[in-house]
DNA sequence: AGCTACTGGATACCTTCAGTATCCAGTTAC
DNA sequence: GTAACTGGATACTGAAGGTATCCAGTAGCT
């Protein structure tokens, strides 16, 4: 199909398609002539994936490109998952300011905590993993706000995270029947589960708050 | 302290402090004269919170304002949590395009799924909750990518979410000794746990991937 | 009283991001 | 032959998140 048709079927403006192509998110169509290219079903799929990654996953164009590149170079589900995991943006920025003394002491404390956690969970981590870095930074930030986790709390959360990860991986394993878009599915599981999980947590929080407000009093009937 | 001192202690440029004040994130200092205001420790704290919310929590200025407004108007931990929960941005945007037929069928399917999930979890939800809307939209999007959850999977995730929410609420309850910044702590728990949890999940995923590549045995040992 | 440093407030400006729109010259299907 | 369409380049837009500048009014020191 021509680019205009691709635009029509996906609902993405032609200009945007060109933009994504320019940004390396979307492969160019098969050129049938100097000024004409043929697009296929894979482009439709890719466009959908891009849309999902950016809107649902909240990825920037640059992050999406990295993820998609990882997808294209992956030769197995695992390698795709690994690459994607590293390509996904970590939601923590280092805060370069603040008093240096406090920084130093809380900084090393956060590091030690993360190290202890990884040991407690029996995780084998390179230490250079961006996730380790990110977690350390996040804990540092929380410490600075005097809202850090008490000993054990973090482990409890980590146990939940482990369960979630098992579900994720199991889920990824069920996609084995379609090897073509296998890596894509892996991406989806990794990148797009996060918002779903977060939403679920919010829902659960909302329910918990409601219940605890009600307190010992009898359950308020639904209207 | 004067605004310049506030700037020095927090590391936030004066212009930015003014900006936050203008945006309603930071209360004005107590005016000691027409062109002079006194800032206190609460401003330092607030500035830290703003920074954490925007960098760690990834909130926009507008979202942060909403959250902070909720904090200021809260009279109990629960009301703060409730307000904050709704003020936090939901990471899903409706995709208004696509073929209408498929849209209709998957759309209602997603709705039914969410409804069933809420029933299965015994959650009492208004249905108008933005989280319900968001989850529905997210599932719709995943369906469109042919990566939707199989029956039961979602429930498993929801159970994890429930556990996490319990931990969250328990955590929030331990802050009762400092009623001044109580609402702030609640915000932190709700808004800033998300990145930590997500990071933990990534860590766990990374570990899982490593184990499954190495062992070929998808069954990790229990400790 | 005079001088300088600092202030709140208003406004203008800058950079990045994610698209959109325009222009162009080369096909191509009719 | 011509109207429709193309890839490619470039320009533009609008929002977001700050920064920087300008201003006249003090405060505090001398």
TrEMBL record, chains A, B:
The keyword DNA-binding applies. It comes from Streptomyces hiroshimensis. PROSITE patterns: HTH_MERR_2 (PS50937). This is MerR family transcriptional regulator. Residues 1-70 form the HTH merR-type domain. Keywords: DNA-binding.
């Amino acid at each position: 199909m021509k680019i205009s048709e691709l635009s029509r079927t996906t609902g993405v403006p032609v200009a945007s398609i060109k933009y994504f192509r320019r940004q390396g998110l979307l492969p160019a169509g098969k050129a049938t002539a100097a000024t004409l290219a043929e697009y296929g079903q894979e482009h439709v799929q890719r466009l959908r994936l891009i849309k999902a990654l950016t809107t649902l996953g909240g990825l920037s164009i640059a992050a999406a490109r990295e993820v998609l590149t990882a997808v294209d170079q992956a030769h197995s589900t695992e390698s795709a998952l690994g690459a994607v995991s590293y390509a996904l943006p970590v939601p923590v920025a280092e805060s370069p300011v603040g008093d240096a003394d406090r920084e130093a002491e809380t900084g090393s404390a956060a590091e030690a905590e993360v190290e202890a956690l990884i040991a407690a969970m029996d995780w084998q981590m390179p230490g250079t993993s961006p996730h380790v870095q990110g977690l350390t930074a996040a804990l540092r930030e929380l410490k600075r706000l005097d809202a850090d986790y008490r000993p054990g709390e973090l482990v409890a959360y980590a146990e939940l995270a482990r369960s979630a990860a098992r579900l994720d991986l199991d889920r990824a394993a069920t996609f084995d029947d379609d090897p073509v878009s296998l890596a894509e599915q892996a991406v989806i599981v990794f990148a797009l589960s996060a918002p779903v999980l977060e939403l679920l947590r919010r829902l659960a929080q909302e329910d918990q708050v409601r219940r605890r407000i009600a307190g010992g009093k009898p359950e308020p009937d639904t209207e």
